[in-house]
Design brief:
7-stranded mixed sheet, 9 strands, globular, 200 residues, alpha+beta, Rossmann fold
Length: 200
């Protein structure tokens, strides 16, 4: 994944949007630590809805693989507000971006996928359960950082093997989700829950 990061790092730099005079939604990219002892942190990009960001649902997007980045997959080549041109020198607007109706949260998970990292090298060996627990810890940290998303509908979504991660996240919460759909792909699930103001 290092080659992808080096080649495409410029795509995430805010100056590229200004230089091309593209008008787009408010977005932010940062890390949230999910394990202090291990120094394990997950990277995310939040892209606000262009419709009603203050009331539209929050959608967590996970890419499959396992091991595929949600930045390179979901954000920059499928559902995000912009696509890079084949040469990677420019961005073009995506007329079918999901952030037209939802606040999109793209997550690189687990550690060592995309920009997510751990300071403990043995964390490179990971299973679905720890990935689900880390993803839930990420959500708790995200809601602490952005409390305005509490009380909203949350969609956990992903493609291919990420469907297994959605299912494991559902099991780790100990809650029966409001709705859990099994899609055509044998691994794909979509889950809708409501974020309670005191959920943790």
């Amino acid at each position: 994944m290092r080659w992808w990061r080096q080649r495409n790092a410029a795509l995430f730099h805010p100056a590229i949007f200004t230089a091309q005079r593209l008008t787009g939604p408010l977005s932010t990219s940062r890390y949230i630590t999910v394990d202090e002892d291990a120094g394990r942190a997950l990277f995310y990009t939040l892209v606000e809805s262009t419709s009603s960001p203050e009331s539209d649902p929050l959608v967590l997007w996970l890419n499959g693989g396992p091991g595929c980045s949600s930045m390179g997959g979901g954000l920059m080549s499928e559902l995000g507000p912009f696509y890079p041109t084949p040469t990677g020198e420019h961005l073009i607007q995506n007329d079918y971006a999901w952030n037209r109706v939802a606040n999109m949260l793209f997550l690189d998970s687990p550690a060592f996928v995309g920009w997510s990292y751990s300071n403990r090298s043995e964390d490179i060996v990971v299973g679905d359960k720890r990935t689900a627990i880390d993803s839930l810890e990420f959500l708790f940290g995200f809601l602490d950082r952005f409390p305005e998303y509490r009380g909203r509908t949350l969609w956990l979504s992903g493609e291919s093997y990420a469907g297994e991660r959605v299912r494991h996240m559902s099991e780790c919460t100990g809650l029966c989700p409001a709705r859990l759909w099994h899609c055509n792909d044998r691994h794909s699930y979509v889950m809708q829950v409501t974020i309670c103001p005191t959920w943790r």
